[in-house]
C-alpha cells in the first residue's frame, strides 16, 4: 500500500485541477488525478481514507523535493487526526489554494505531524486558507473527529446518517478520536431532506450533484454541452456523457447511480424513470446487459419505494401494507410517495383531494378508514360514503342512476350499485357511452371480469401446493476450504442447472478476478524491476568514472530492465494498481473490462509481463488457479465470454457476495450405492437441499446458526492443505488456518442449534495435500505436533518406506482422528469423516451420498453402530480418489 501511494505522489497531475474539482472529494478521500495519458483511463480515482493505514500517509518534503506543485492534488485527510501521537504524523494536509495553486499553502511540513495542540492550531490556520475545504468551522471539524459530537443533530451530519458514520464498533480504541468518514468517497455534497416535502426523521440525507463545469457539460469530464446525450444518476442527478457513464457509475449494481451514490435511495422525482432504458444506455450496453441493469434498478431493495412515504386514507403505510398493495392482482400503477385515498369496497383509488384515477384490487387491508371528503367532492352524492366529484356525478347521471336528493350508493368492484335504503340498483358502466364519457373525463372503469374476493394475493398466506419432505444439508467451512467448489460440483453432478443469474454472476466474478490476478502480477513486476535496479546500484562502484557524468543524473526510474513496461502499458499498470489501492476495484470491475480488453491483450504479449509471469510462483498472493484463467485472458475479457463448466468450477466462488446459496436435488438411481455392505435401496424421489453458508454469514459466535436448526446434517469442510497456511485475523495477527478451522468447528459443534445434529467432516483438497505433505511437515501446525512421533510408533517411521499416496493417506487418517477426538470431547456423538478432492466429481458425489446414508441410517436404524458407518464411509469415499 505504501509503495502504491508513493507512486501516486510521484505522478504529475495531467492538468491543473480547479478548486471545485477537489472540494468535491473533501474530507472523505485522497484524490489522485491520473496521468491522463493517451488512452482512456479514469481521470480521478478516489481513495477511501479508511482503507489506508495511517503510516502510509507519512510523507515528508524530502520524498518529493520542495516543488509541491509536482504533486497531485490531495485533499486534507482527517483520519486519525487526533490520535495524539507526536512522533507519527497523523495526517497530511495538502491542497491547492486559489491564489497560488498550492505552491506555498500546500506546505507539507507545516501540516505534517498534526497531533499536539499547537500543531492542531496550526492546522486550523492552514485550513482557514484552504478555500476549497468543505469543513468551514471548528465545530464542523469537531463534528467529524469527535464521535460524541458527531451524534449531534445540529450539524445535520449525525452519526446515524449512514454517510459520515460508518463502521460502527470498529476500532474501538479510536472511537473518541476517529473522524467518521463516509462510506465511500463522494463527489457530491449532501442535502438535508428535512427540507423535502416528506418530513421524516429517519430519511437519509440525500447526495446532490454539484455542477463543476459549464451548464450542460458532463459532470465527470466537464466536456460537452446541453445537446450532448447524457445519463442521469437517479440519486443525485449528476449527468454523464456517453464516455463517462461507466467510469462514473461502475457496474451499476443498483442501476444508474454514481459510484458514490450506491446505497442511497433514489430521488423520488426520478422514480418514474426507474427501469426505463435511456438511449445512452442502449448504445453503451448490449441488450442483455441493459435488461439486467434495468432489472437490478427496478428490483434492488434500496430503490424500492419506502412505505413511510405512502399514506392511504390519512394513515402511513407499514412495509407489509405496501407489499400487499404492490403484490395484489391489480396494484396501483406508478405508485409514488404521496397521500392517496382508497375505497376498499369498490377498489377505487385516487390522490387525496381528487377524484378516482384508477381501480385497484378491492378489500385490501391497507391504510385507514376513508373519510367522506377525501376526494374533495361537493355534490352531496356519496359512493361508499365518499362524496363524489362533479365529473363522477355526471357519469352517474349519464348511466341513468337516479341522483335526486342526497343519495348514497354502495358500489361494488364490478360496477353494480345499490342505493342505500332504496330498491334502486343496477350497473353503472354497462352502456358504451358511459364508458366513453369516463374515458373523456379520465375516470376509471371497472373491468368486465369482475374480480372475486379471492383475487387478493397475500404473500404471507401463500401456501405451496405440495410440500414434500426434504432433507437439508448445511455446508460450511472456513475461508478457502472449498465449500463453493463442492456446491458447484454438486450442481453439475446432480444436473441442477445454473440459473442465468448465477452464470452471469460467475462470469463477472471470473472477469473481475482476472484483473485481480493481473494486478498481483503487475505488482510483482514492479518488485522484480526494483530488485534489479537496486542490485545494479549496489554493484556499481561508488566513484565509477564511467557512470559519473552521464548516468550520475539519470533517474533510476528511467532505466530499462527485463521487467520494464512501455509507457502505455505502464500507465495501465499504474492505473490498475491504483484502483486496487483505492478499494474501488470491486466497483470498477468487471464493468470496465470491455474498455481494457485491448490493453490486456497487449500486456499479455509484452516481454516484461511474460518475464514476470514466468516467475509467478514467487508471488504468494497469486492463487494456483490464476494460471488457468490467465491462459484464456483474452477470451475472458471479451463481453461475449460464456464460462464453461470447468471455468465455473474453477472460479473462486459463485457470487461476489458471500450470500447463502442453496440447491434442491435428488440422488439419481445408481448401482454405486452397493458399495455399502449390505447394499440397500434408496428412494430416488427423496428431495435434498444443499445449503452453503459462508462462514462470514454465520456471524460472531455463529449466532445465525439458529436459522438452520432444521438441518438434518452439517457438512463441515476443512482444507487439508491449511496446516501450514496463515491468515491475518481482525487484529492483524497471523493465525494458522487449520487452527482457525478448528475453532470454527468447535464453535459450530458446541452451538445450541447443532445439538444432536449429525456431522460429516469433509477433509478437502486431498490432491493438493498429497503434494504438500512430502514437502512441508505436518507438524508445522501446532495441533499436529505429535504426527511424526505417532507415525514412528505406529508404522516404524512412515515417510521413508511409504509411497506418497500412502503417506498422505496416513496423514489424512491422523487429521481425521484429531477431529474425531475433538468432536467426542465436545459431544456424545461420533463424527463421520470423508476424504475429498473438490475438483473431482466422483469424490463430491461420494461425500454427499455418504451424508445421505448418515441421514437415512439415523432415521431407519438409529441403533446401528456409528463407528461402523464411519469406517465404511471413509473407505468408500476415499476409494474414489
Ligand atoms: N486443487 C484443488 N483446489 C481446490 C479444491 N477445492 C477448492 N479448490 C480451490 O480452492 C479455492 C477456494 O475454494 P472455494 O470453493 O472458493 O472455497 P470457499 O470455501 O468457497 O472459500 P471462500 O469463498 O474463500 O470462503 C478455489 O480456487 C478452488 O478452485 C480441491 O479439492 N483441489
Ligand atoms: Mg469461495
TrEMBL record:
Keywords: GTP-binding, Magnesium, Metal-binding, Nucleotide-binding, Transducer. GTP binds at residues 764-767. It comes from Cucurbita maxima (Pumpkin). Residues 186-196 have a biased composition (Polar residues). GO terms for biological process: G protein-coupled receptor signaling pathway. One of its GO terms (molecular function) is GTP binding. The gene is LOC111484197. Mg(2+) binds at residue 484. Residues 135-208, 538-558 are annotated as: Disordered. PROSITE patterns: G_ALPHA. This is Extra-large guanine nucleotide-binding protein 1-like. The lineage of its organism: Eukaryota, Viridiplantae, Streptophyta, Embryophyta, Tracheophyta. InterPro entries: Gprotein_alpha_su, GproteinA_insert, P-loop_NTPase, XLG_GTP-binding.
Amino acid at each position: 500500500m505504501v509503495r502504491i501511494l508513493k507512486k501516486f505522489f510521484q505522478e504529475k497531475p495531467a492538468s491543473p485541477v480547479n478548486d471545485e474539482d477537489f472540494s468535491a472529494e473533501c474530507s472523505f478521500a485522497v484524490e489522485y488525478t491520473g496521468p491522463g495519458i493517451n488512452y482512456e483511463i479514469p481521470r480521478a480515482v478516489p481513495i477511501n481514507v479508511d482503507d489506508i493505514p495511517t503510516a502510509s500517509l507519512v510523507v515528508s518534503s524530502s520524498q518529493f523535493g520542495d516543488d509541491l506543485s509536482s504533486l497531485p492534488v490531495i485533499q486534507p485527510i482527517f483520519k486519525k487526526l487526533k490520535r495524539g501521537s507526536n512522533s507519527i504524523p497523523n495526517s497530511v494536509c495538502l491542497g491547492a489554494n486559489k491564489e497560488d495553486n498550492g505552491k506555498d499553502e500546500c506546505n507539507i511540513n507545516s501540516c505534517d505531524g498534526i497531533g499536539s495542540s499547537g500543531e492542531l492550531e496550526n492546522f486550523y490556520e492552514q485550513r482557514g486558507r484552504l478555500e476549497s475545504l468543505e469543513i468551514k468551522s471548528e465545530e464542523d471539524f469537531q463534528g467529524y473527529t469527535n464521535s460524541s459530537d458527531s451524534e449531534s443533530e445540529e450539524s445535520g451530519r449525525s452519526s446515524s446518517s449512514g454517510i459520515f458514520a460508518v463502521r460502527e464498533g470498529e476500532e474501538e480504541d479510536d472511537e473518541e478520536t476517529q473522524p467518521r468518514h463516509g462510506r465511500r468517497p463522494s463527489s457530491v455534497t449532501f442535502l438535508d431532506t428535512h427540507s423535502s416535502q416528506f418530513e421524516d426523521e429517519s430519511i437519509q440525507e440525500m447526495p446532490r450533484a454539484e455542477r463543476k463545469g459549464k451548464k450542460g457539460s458532463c459532470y465527470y469530464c466537464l466536456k460537452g454541452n446541453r445537446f450532448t446525450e447524457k445519463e442521469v444518476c437517479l440519486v443525485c442527478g449528476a449527468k454523464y456523457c456517453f464516455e463517462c457513464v461507466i467510469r462514473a457509475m461502475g457496474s451499476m449494481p443498483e442501476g444508474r447511480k454514481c459510484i458514490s451514490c450506491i446505497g442511497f435511495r433514489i430521488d423520488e422525482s426520478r422514480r418514474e424513470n426507474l427501469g426505463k432504458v435511456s438511449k445512452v444506455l442502449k448504445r453503451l450496453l448490449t441488450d442483455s446487459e441493459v435488461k439486467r441493469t434495468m432489472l437490478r434498478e427496478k428490483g434492488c431493495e434500496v430503490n424500492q419505494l419506502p412505505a413511510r412515504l405512502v399514506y392511504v386514507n390519512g394513515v402511513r403505510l407499514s412495509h407489509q401494507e405496501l407489499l400487499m398493495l404492490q403484490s395484489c392482482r391489480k396494484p396501483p400503477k406508478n405508485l409514488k410517495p404521496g397521500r392517496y385515498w382508497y375505497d376498499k369496497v369498490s377498489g377505487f383509488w385516487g390522490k387525496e383531494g381528487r377524484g378516482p384515477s384508477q381501480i385497484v384490487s378491492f378489500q385490501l387491508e391497507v391504510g385507514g378508514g376513508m373519510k367522506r371528503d377525501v376526494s374533495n367532492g361537493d355534490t352531496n352524492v356519496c359512493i361508499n360514503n365518499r362524496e363524489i366529484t362533479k365529473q363522477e356525478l355526471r357519469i352517474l347521471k349519464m348511466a341513468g342512476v337516479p341522483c335526486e336528493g342526497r343519495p348514497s350508493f354502495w358500489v361494488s368492484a364490478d360496477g353494480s350499485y345499490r342505493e342505500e335504503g332504496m330498491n334502486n340498483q343496477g350497473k353503472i358502466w354497462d352502456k358504451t357511452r358511459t364508458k366513453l364519457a369516463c374515458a373523456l373525463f379520465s375516470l376509471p372503469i371497472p373491468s368486465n371480469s369482475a374480480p372475486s374476493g379471492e383475487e387478493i394475493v397475500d404473500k404471507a398466506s401463500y401456501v405451496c401446493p405440495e410440500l414434500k419432505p426434504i432433507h437439508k444439508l448445511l455446508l460450511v467451512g472456513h475461508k478457502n476450504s472449498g465449500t463453493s467448489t463442492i456446491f458447484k460440483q454438486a450442481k453439475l453432478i446432480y444436473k441442477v442447472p445454473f440459473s442465468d443469474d448465477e452464470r452471469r454472476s460467475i462470469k463477472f466474478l471470473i472477469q473481475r478476478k482476472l484483473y485481480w490476478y493481473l494486478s498481483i502480477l503487475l505488482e510483482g513486476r514492479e518488485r522484480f524491476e526494483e530488485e534489479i535496479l537496486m542490485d545494479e546500484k549496489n554493484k556499481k562502484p561508488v566513484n565509477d568514472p564511467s557512470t559519473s557524468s552521464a548516468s550520475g543524473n539519470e533517474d533510476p526510474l528511467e532505466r530499462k530492465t527485463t521487467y520494464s513496461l512501455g509507457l502505455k502499458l505502464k500507465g495501465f499498470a499504474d492505473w490498475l494498481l491504483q484502483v486496487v489501492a483505492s478499494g474501488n476495484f470491486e466497483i470498477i470491475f468487471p464493468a470496465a473490462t470491455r474498455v481494457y480488453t485491448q490493453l490486456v491483450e497487449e500486456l499479455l504479449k509484452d516481454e516484461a509481463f511474460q518475464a514476470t509471469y514466468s516467475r509467478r510462483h514467487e508471488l504468494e498472493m497469486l492463487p494456483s488457479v490464476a494460471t488457468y484463467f490467465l491462459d484464456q485472458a483474452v477470451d475472458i475479457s471479451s463481453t461475449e465470454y460464456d464460462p464453461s463448466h470447468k471455468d465455473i468450477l474453477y472460479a473462486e466462488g459463485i457470487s461476489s457476495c458471500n450470500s447463502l446459496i442453496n440447491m434442491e436435488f435428488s440422488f439419481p438411481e445408481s448401482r454405486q450405492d452397493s458399495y455399502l455392505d449390505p447394499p440397500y435401496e434408496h428412494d430416488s424421489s427423496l428431495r435434498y437441499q444443499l445449503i452453503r453458508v459462508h462462514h462470514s454469514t454465520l456471524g460472531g459466535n455463529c449466532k445465525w446458526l439458529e436459522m438452520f436448526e432444521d438441518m438434518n446434517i452439517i457438512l463441515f469442510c476443512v482444507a487439508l492443505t491449511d496446516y501450514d497456511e496463515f491468515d491475518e485475523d481482525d487484529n492483524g495477527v497471523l493465525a494458522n488456518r487449520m487452527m482457525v478451522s478448528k475453532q470454527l468447528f468447535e464453535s459450530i459443534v458446541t452451538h445450541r442449534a447443532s445439538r444432536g445434529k449429525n456431522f460429516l467432516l469433509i477433509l478437502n483438497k486431498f490432491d493438493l495435500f498429497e503434494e504438500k505433505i512430502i514437502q512441508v511437515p505436518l507438524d508445522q501446525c501446532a495441533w499436529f505436533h505429535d504426527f511424526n512421533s505417532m507415525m514412528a510408533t505406529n508404522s516404524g517411521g512412515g515417510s521413508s518406506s511409504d509411497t506418497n499416496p500412502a503417506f498422505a493417506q496416513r496423514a489424512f487418517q491422523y487429521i481425521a482422528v484429531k477431529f474425531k477426538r475433538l468432536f467426542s470431547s465436545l459431544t456424545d456423538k461420533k463424527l463421520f469423516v470423508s476424504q475429498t478432492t473438490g475438483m473431482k466429481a466422483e469424490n463430491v458425489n461420494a461425500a454427499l451420498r455418504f451424508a445421505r446414508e448418515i441421514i437415512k441410517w439415523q432415521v431407519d436404524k438409529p441403533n446401528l453402530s456409528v463407528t461402523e458407518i464411519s469406517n465404511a464411509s471413509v473407505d468408500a469415499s476415499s476409494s474414489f480418489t
